[in-house]
Structures are given as structure tokens and as C-alpha cells.
Amino acid sequence: MSFFSLPHFPPADSSAEHRRRDYQIAGFTFVTTTICLTMDGFAPQFMQYVLALFGWLFLFAWLRGECKYVRTQVAVAVTFALIGEYFASVYMKGYIYRFGNVPAYVPAGHGLVYLTAVALGRSGLFQRYARRIAVFVVAACGSWAAWGLSGNTRLDVIGAVLFIVFLGYLFKGRSPMVYLGAFFITSWLEIVGTSAGTWAWAEIDPASHLPQGNPPSGVAAWYCLVDAVAIAGAGPVLQLFSKTALVLQRQRA
Predict the structure, then answer these.
(1) Is residue 5 part of a domain?
(2) Is residue 1 a part of any domain in this protein?
(3) Beta-bridge mates of residue 211
(4) How high is the pLDDT of residue 253?
(5) From the centroid of its chain, how far is CA 69?
(6) Helix axis angle, 68-85 relative to 106-122, nearest 10°?
(7) Cβ(36)–Cβ(109) below 8 Å
(8) Within a domain: residue 2?
(9) Which domain holds residue 235?
(10) Is the pTM of this model over 0.90?
């Protein structure tokens, strides 16, 4: 089966509604991510709590316009990503934030990033030009991975491995449109965050002992994992809450 006939992509040049809200969410997250991560690169640590306050306010405001299923996906994504942050950064030291902690704004930030990936993936632009965008993403990420292996910069073997993992998500995963959206927002925030000095990736990955870039070229694959867990976990979580509510309702009756 050729790339252009993959059934889990929207049909070529399919018509889709252009909802202004989807582009507003994406534009908002790209701008605020740039401001937040740049500011955290030089501001005192207490500013992280100020950024967290605004992050949660904005996240809840955007979620008010989403359905229950998407809100649950965001909640699962935030929970899983936060656990991953403490394991990968604080415990494993795969990357380290400027103050050696997990900044207070990170959970809300993960929620906004996931919501942005969803908004981009369902947008009329991505639905209509899915295959063309996928070609661009594969070419861009592949070129980035090749550059990391070229020796012209810090050696990035982990990036190449993650690029292959990302391709697996994109071509075999349940929600390729979300993964395409994740590539754009996560690559951007990683470039901004590492350039500002907000965090830095270890030269040697502590788990595999392979060299990695700052950031690794295929870093979007990690965020695809978060997306995959959110997509897979939202249904069971909603069912659990529904059953719990039903049991409580019967007990009150």
C-alpha cells in the first residue's frame, strides 16, 4: 500500500470545515509558548508560579468550548505527561530544567500542547491537505535527523531512533492527524525552550547511553506517546466515571 493511499488519512483534497476556533487555539499556544519559555529562560523561579496560574486559566477557558471526550483526553494527557516529566527529567536526568525542577507551568502547558495538536489535526487545513502536510513533516524531520547524524553538530543518534518511532506512529497509529499537529507545536516549543536555556538535553541519553541532540531531532515521538495514551485512555476513564456516577445515583435512590 502506497503512502498516498493509507486509509487512516483523510481522502486527498477532502472538503472540511474551517473552524476559526481551531486556528485560534493553535495561534494562541504558539505565541504564549514562545513568551513563556523565553521568559523562564531568565526570570526568577517564582515567575514559574505566575506562568502556571495563567496557564491553567487559559487552559480551562479553552476547554469550556470542547466536548467531554476531548476534555478527558486532555486530563489523561496532563496526568501521563507529568509522571513522564518527573521520571525522565528529575529521576533519569535525560533533560534538566534550569532550576533542576519540573516548572509549575508544565502541567497546564502539556494540556495546551495536546489541545493544540487536536485542534490542528481536525482543522480544515490539515484535513484537506493531510498527505501534503505529512510529506513535509516526514521530509523536515528526516532532514533534521540526518543532520544530527552528519557530524556537523552535536551527534544525535537518539533523534534518528525517535524519527523512526515517529514514522511508526504516523503510518500505523490511531490518530495520524493529531501526530502531525504534535510535530509542529512540540518541535517549536523544544527549539524555543532549549534555545532560551529553559532546559537542556543531556549529551548522552541515560537510558540507552546513546548520544542525543539538544533537542533530539525526533523529539515529537515522545509527545506522540502522550497523545496515544490520551486517545486510548479517554474512553475507559469516561466509562469509569459513568459507572461510578450510576452507582452513586442508585445508592441515593
Answers:
(1) no
(2) no
(3) 204
(4) 65
(5) 18
(6) 130
(7) yes
(8) no
(9) 13-252
(10) yes
